[in-house]
Design a protein that fits this description.
This protein has strands spanning 2-5, 26-28, 34-36, 40-45, 56-61, 72-75. The chain is an all-beta fold and 87 residues long.
Length: 87
Amino acid sequence: MSLLKAADQEPLFGSVDGHAASDAILSLQADGTVVHHGRLTLSGRLKIPLRNRGSTLVAQIDLTGIAAGTRLVLYFDLLGSVPWTAK
């Protein structure tokens, strides 16, 4: 999941530690690995493998300091998740 500024398509918060080449604020891998930006709070539960039903994940983004009216775009990249072997 990526949160970009609509005006220039640049990441709102920068990269996640260890993933400098990515604009993702949340990365969910098939093996259950979860990497997320510090301004993202996660709650819920994940069942492994992820294709199992019953997984619920709630993501809350801290927008403190972002000016009201700032246009943002939230992207979900699901293409890398097929067939449950994303790296």
